[in-house]
Design goal:
Catalase HpII,  Chain A, domain 1; 8-stranded antiparallel β-barrel; alpha+beta; elongated; Alpha-D-Glucose-1,6-Bisphosphate, Chain A, domain 4
Length: 460
């Protein structure tokens, strides 16, 4: 009866708890600073010891990309030292956990304190009970490894350190992949599990600061690094698709020098960057700078005006150290669905251009875009050239795949004496800190190389 009552209580608590968690996430977690670790997550996972014991679900057993995540909070004015703080946390994990979405239930071991070999089940909404085992315990840390049935495959460590001026630094760090395909979809594709996880551990750090009797010094800082792990089957699929695209476009290049965007107008470009309201860990999105380069506007199919066509905006600029970077944009919609679909247009402006294919900023997939406001300029190269005696000004924007767009700079285009021989290849000239994400980004580089080799020209 007691077990049934407990289950009913959980069933009633989850809807209300998820509502409260969502409200807290909207109010606080979206503003949590997120940065990249830049430590090489794959090597860190490979250094994880091969532990003995039954039911362990090591990171090598998971699916999808590898993630190393670190949540850190600095605490001032606590009467506890690092070892005392870890002892207090180990006595009752639920004192720090957001119990509306995660409750720690010890299933093996003495009731208190937390010791090596103890096992817990972390009860979460729906069928997401997550079993773990304590695999390391020191005076200032403890570490869980996931067991079969957990949403993730890997390990997570909780540690404290004494800092200068009697401060404490509390850190949660994990090394893990998704436990199965469904978990990968929820985390990597939909993003629900990712945001709930961020809320859970950021809230956990905040509660630890309260348990310590001190106060938080600044915000909880979240750092993430990600590495792709290609399964043999996926590698074969990627190779097959790449070959098909490269050969098809190379054949098309024999018939027409440029299979797509055959004619265009090349002009001078200036990117004036001012950053956004959040930190991305990417120079293009965080810096305040003025960058110079060139741009090419073109019609993708080459249909005669006034017929609508997919319009392209190719950009090249010089990054720090004079390394070139390139970005290809095309006319799309701007809504969460429309930004993933090409859209024919009859005017260069007003129009919306997006990268269509995503990039990776830490643990987030993002799209870049440009908004061309009035004046109205028909999608005709002659009309475009006549209208550019004055600079054409566009707003540069960034968004997660389904999030709102946010301005990070302005783009100024000015007609110059460039000829139309310029070739672009963003795979050869990547944007610093923004690796391409997804299958079609992997395909694009070899396809461009094949076309340009067939045409007898290289990327300039």
């Amino acid at each position: 009866m007691r077990i049934r009552s407990r289950r009913r209580l959980r069933a009633l608590r989850w809807p209300a708890g998820m509502g409260l968690a969502t409200w807290r996430w909207l109010r606080r977690s979206r503003g949590v600073p997120r940065r990249r670790l830049r430590t090489g997550v794959r090597s860190d996972v490979e250094r994880l010891p091969r532990r003995g014991g039954d039911r362990l679900q090591h990171a090598r057993h998971g699916v999808g990309p590898l993630y190393q995540r670190r949540y850190t909070v600095r605490i001032s004015g606590s009467p506890l030292n690092a070892a005392q703080l870890i002892d207090r946390l180990g006595d009752d994990l639920n004192a720090a956990s957001p119990v509306e979405i995660a409750v720690f239930d010890k299933t093996s071991g003495t009731s208190r304190p937390l010791e090596l070999g103890d096992e817990y089940v972390v009860h979460m909404p729906g069928p997401w009970n997550c079993p773990v085992r304590v695999v390391e315990r020191t005076p200032v840390s403890f570490r869980f490894a996931t067991l079969r049935g957990h949403l993730e495959a890997g390990e997570i460590e909780f540690r404290a350190a004494d800092a200068r001026e009697d401060d404490l630094v509390f850190t949660i760090e994990s090394w893990a992949r998704s436990g199965d395909r469904l978990a990968e979809v929820l985390y990597e594709r939909v993003g629900i599990a990712k945001e709930m996880q961020l809320h859970m551990w950021a809230h956990f750090c905040t509660r630890v600061a309260e348990l310590s009797g001190g106060r938080m010094d600044g915000d909880v800082e979240v750092q993430t690094e990600r590495a792709e792990v290609s399964a043999p089957g996926r590698q074969l699929v990627t190779r097959a698709i790449t070959t098909a695209f490269a050969r098809t476009f190379a054949l098309a290049a024999r018939l027409r020098d440029r299979p797509l965007h055959p004619k265009g107008l090349v002009c001078d470009a200036t990117l004036v960057l001012h950053g956004t309201s959040q930190h991305w860990g990417v120079p293009l999105l965080d810096d305040h700078a003025e960058l110079h380069g060139e741009a090419r506007l073109s019609r993708a199919v080459g249909l005669p005006p006034p017929l609508p066509d997919f319009l392209g905006l190719a950009l090249r600029w010089h990054q720090a150290g004079d390394a070139p970077a390139e970005l290809l944009l095309a006319t799309t919609g701007h809504t969460p669905l429309g930004r993933h679909l090409l859209r024919p247009a009859t005017h260069w402006s007003p129009s919306f251009y997006s990268s269509l294919l995503p990039y990776r900023a830490g643990d987030r997939r993002i799209l870049l875009g440009a908004v061309a406001p009035e004046p109205s300029i028909p999608a005709d190269l002659t009309a475009l050239a006549h209208s550019m005696d004055e600079p054409l000004r566009l707003t540069l924007v960034v968004a997660t795949e389904f999030g709102p767009w946010e301005r990070f700079g302005e783009l100024q285009l000015l007609k110059s004496a460039h000829n139309d021989s310029t070739r672009f290849n963003p795979a050869r000239n990547p944007i610093r800190g923004l690796p391409p994400a997804g299958l079609f980004q992997q395909v694009r580089g070899p396809t461009y190389d094949a076309v340009q080799q067939t045409s007898g020209e290289d990327a300039q």
